[in-house]
Structures are given as C-alpha cells and as structure tokens.
Amino acid sequence: MFIIRVCFIFFFFLCILPSTVFSSFTGLQMRGGEEEEIGKELFPDILREEAVSRLDELGQVSDADGHLERTFMSPASKKAINLVQSWMEDAGLRTWVDQMGNVHGRAEGMNTHAEALLIGSHLDTVIDAGIFDGPLGIVCAVSALKVLKISGKLGNLTRPVEVIAFSDEEGVRFQSTFLGSAAIAGTRPASALQISDKSGVTVQDVLKENSFDATEASYLQLKYDPQSVWGYVEVHIEQGPVLESVGLPLGVVKGIAGQTRLKVTVRGTQGHAGTVPMSMRQDPMTAAAELIVLLETMCKNPADFISYDGHCNGFSAESLAGSLVCTVGEISSWPGASNVIPGQVTFTVDLRTMDDMAREAIIFEISNRMYQTCERRSVSCIIERKHDAEAVVCDPGLSSELKSAANSALKRVAGEIQEKVPVLMSGAGHDAMAMSHLTKVGMLFVRCRGGISHSPAEHVLDDDVWIAGLAILAFLETKL
Q1: Residues 73, 76, 77, 81: what is their CA dihedral angle, to the nearest 10 degrees?
Q2: Is the peptide bond before 335 cis (omega within 30 degrees of 0)?
Q3: Most exposed residue of 24, 259, 391, 413, measured as fewest CB within 10 angstroms of its CB?
Q4: What is the separation of C-alpha 308 from the centre of its chain, rounded to a whole number of angstroms?
C-alpha cells in the first residue's frame, strides 16, 4: 500500500507541476487538459526551450570578458551574424547579409510579388548589456516561422515575410543610432559612411575591413522600395515596469518618443593646477559641470524655463514634465591629467519627449542658456546635433492586429482571461522609428523584471519568451 501511495504522489506531481510552475511565473491560470494541447499546439520545444537557449547562446557572444558588449562590425558581431543566419536557415528561410551587415531571412509564401511583411530588431548591444534587448525580437520571429515550417504552412503565407536582424541600433561605437535600419528605410544619405568613431575610424573603413563594398552606390541600393513593403513589426522588451505592475506578459505600443543626441564641447585655457589663480582661470570642466546641472534643472522643471516667444506654440510646457527626460551619458577631458586644468571638456546629451515641437523648443532654450553660461565664464561652447529621431505613432490597424494576436496567445495558454492587453508609450528608441519612414509600423512589448534594461540584470521569464513567440505565430497565422 505504501508503494502505491508513493507512486500516486509521484504521478500527481508529474501531471500538475508544469502548469503550476507556469501559472506562478505568469500570473495566469492554465485550463484543465493543458498538457495535451501544449504538446500539440503551443510548441514549447521551439518557442520556449529552443528560443531561450538561443538567447542564452547569443548572450555569450561578446567582445569583452566578463560582460556583454557587441558593437557595430566588431568580431563578436560577425560571430552573431553567422549564428543568426544559421537559425534563419534552420527555419527554412532564404538568407543573406547586406552591405551594412544586416542579416535577412525571407519566406516568399505563395505570392512572391506581394508586399512583404518585415519583422525585425537589432543584434548590437550597449556596453555591459543584458541578453534580451534586441535579440528577443529576432529569436521570437525566427522561432515562429520555424513552427510554420514544421507545420507545413510556411509556403502558405499569402505574402512574403522577412526577418531582419539590424546591425546597429544602439549607436555605441559611432554615436549615430539606427545605422542598419536607417539604410534600409532610406533615411540617411550616403555621407553616413563617413561618420567616425573616437579613433577616427569611419563606418566605411570598418565595412571595408569586413569585405563589404562600402561604396555610396552599394549603400544607396540598400533602401527598400516602399511599394514592396506591407508593414513592419517589432517585438521588444518593455524596458520599463508597467507590464510587471499589471501582471501581464505582453503590451501593445501606441507610439515612441522623439529623440535628439547632442555633443557639447567646452574649450577653455589649459594650465598648471597649482600656479593659475582661481580668479584667472578659464576652466572648461567647471563650466561643463554648470551646464550639466542646468540641463538637469531645466528637464525637471521645463515650465520654469521655456519662454513663450514663438518657439513653443502648440504645446503646453507643463505637459512636458511627464515625458521629458535628459541624460548626460559620456564626459571626457583633455589632456585628462590630475595636475592640469583641462583645455577641453566634451559631454553628450540624450533628450527625449513625446512631442517633437516641444523637443525643438527645449533644444533651442537649452542651447541659448548654455551659450550664455559659457560666455559668462569666458570659455567657448560648441553644440553639435549628432542624432535626431521624430516621435512615431504606431499604425492603429497594425496595432489592433497585434493586440488580437497577443490576446490569442494568452488565451491559448490560459483559457479565458479577464485582463486586457495594455497599450503603452515607449520612451526608448527602436528600429521601428527608422522603419516608420518606409512603412507602417507596430510593436509588441514583453514584460521584463523590474523594468531593468541596458544592464546584465535585464531578465525576461522563459514563459514570457514563449508567449511572445506565440503572439507572433498568431499574427503570422492571419497571413495564411
């Protein structure tokens, strides 16, 4: 009798444990008889286990020891390109790498001449990155297409579907985001090839080193014909805490904040740290410190600074307080010795808000005040605009389709649900911003723990990876 009871307990836990664990991770209750459906319809072996394994594997491809770092055309990025291309081929896709290092995988479907659905995200990372920012969207899309291949439905797509792993979204090396997606969208001129990094190496130099043509002609040929594209979809981690706070794994994005990056160079008079009297110094470091504090104060309280003199008509300065953010991410000095008053200080500014007109007004005002401060301190100030991206409104129709797909994915794993898939704004930039100049765009956000991103602490639950893959699969099934 004792043996029978032990066997019964073992069988009981074997049957209910998977659904119990799943429910604890997602906050959703699985319906009875789920085990059989999981095996037949939800493809956990591909959309969960294999997808998570691939994210982990890609997360080990780094140019640095001890942390994840994979920048444009680095040795690690080339390894990542080969890895992703092999996964695309495994999914039955025709693959190629274009002249900017973007990796493409395409399923032609039944009508090769129809407008194509593009799905993408980026392969590059920030320094000391997490493993989900960018690769999650690539892996989920490839996994969903692999399911269609295994199911014998890949050839039944009514329009071509192309997955693109973009080569540079973060802009770490060249301080110019969207190098990969902007080339395809046609938003950058061929002069982008002459953008240089801190060492003076240009984009063109790096491409040639990696056996790409890197000519103006080859660059301009990357632009897609808008008439050949139906729309663009991107899956990305939220990089914020909203989805976790409402207990749901997916959300639909309704828009993306506009962004401007500035490079501020302050020049003074270089001198000996011990011999130049304080009253006679033209110190660019202290001037830069005042400029940075000014920037922070203005972005915290924009209504106290913006003057309504024709530069900010059409928006409320008070409304900026909820969406305006400003960040100084880099600062350097020359010659950078402890016993020398520096001759030059350079720092970067990242400024974002949902309203493009408001962003221009803020830049106008902060620039004027920076110049005034530098003049008062007898130092020179040069402000360069290194990057601009207009705010993007996602296509309502495409967003509605993605919302239905997200709901379908949740119902497939949990049955009837009471919660509605939330609609969110994105404060972070995405390749969808560049692609919006080519075609209509839509985005799905995936819950991330604590809203943490751009950090090794970045984390997405295995089951949330699964549900994201199911959502893309449900979306693709509407194209059969």
Answers
A1: 130
A2: yes
A3: 24
A4: 34
